[in-house]
Amino acid sequence: MPNTLTRKKPTFPVSPDLLGYLRRYKRERDLSVTYERLRSFQEVIPLTDANGAPTLWDTVIYDGAEMRELNEALKLVYALLKVDGDLSVMSHLYVDRIDYCTFGNSTPFRIRIVNAFNDNQDYFYVKKADASRIYGLELEHLLSPNRLNFITHGSTLIEEHIIGLPGDVFIDQWLKRPELRPIRVAKELVKFNERCFVRLLGDMRSYNFVVQLTPDFDDWQVRIRAMDFDQQSYNHRKNFYLPQFFKENTELTLFCAKHLRAETANQYQREEQTLLLQRASLASERLSLLLHTMSGDSISPPEKICELRAGLAEHYGRDAYLRCESMGALIRENLESIRRNVGRPIVPELVPE
Predict the structure, then answer these.
(1) pLDDT tens figures, 95-133
(2) Which segments in the chain show pLDDT lower than 70?
(3) CB 191 within 8 A of CB 264
(4) How would you class 252 by CB atoms within 10 Å of its CB: exposed for 0-12, middle for 13-18, buried for 19 or more?
(5) How far is 298 from 229, CA to CA, in rounded Å?
(6) In whole angstroms, how far apart are CA 326 and each of 29, 207, 306?
(7) C or N terminus of the chain, fewer CB within 10 Å?
């Protein structure tokens, strides 16, 4: 069960500057579906999994007229996510189910879209807009190997579904399967660990990331991908941004440490740092504007920023951190630190707290 720590973070409103950024890059769109509109459901049915066990989700029911209108409006939202609003290729889709989760900060709605021709299904989410979550989504889009589709409308956030095995399921059912090479799992944990640390994405416990497995011509490729961005740049502890240190990830961390030499771990860490810098360079104008906007936004209390900057200054051995007054400035300084190739290696310490 998820830790209550993630419940305590407040929701931060979208500032005028962030709204301007979202409009500039076509993230902000006019929608007839809002989070508040979806809250007007009339009935709730507990949702169970394939084995009949209860889940954290409920299926919600609306009156007939509202459901018909919602069907069309939600199809348009899906079209905006996937094909920039071209409904001509979406006429055969329908909304099969709307689920609601009361757990956590975002209390999201999950929309299941089904293709009437072949029964193929997809999902997307409607959530309360939170500035820190939006920064997390955009940083993932710019600095990770993954592209993300999301749109906003005032206080509503629409996110696409991120496909993959939940991290806890992967650890329990896949981690030690013989068809997976342990070194590939270990390499991906190192890279994921570094991406989260540099861009300050916290709380990456096993239930907050997914593992994507792709069969290659001679083996399986592994990628770990974040799926929850609620804890972007809020916490004050340096190790909160390192997935290796969460007890929920202990089995994965120790498995990787067993199969990884320190020299190889350092190599993979530096490879990911180089890729981060390349991505930052390719999106330099957009990233610069995002971090500038983030630097002027209040998404973490000053005392948390002060404690985190002290930890980062010690880790990287750079007093420049002590002049940072915002989380955006700390991320910018992290990128400068890896450009200079300074700081102690993190990965050889692959032992949870």
Answers:
(1) 999 999 987 677 899 999 999 999 999 999 999 999 999
(2) 1-7, 104, 344, 346-353
(3) no
(4) buried
(5) 17
(6) 28, 28, 9
(7) N
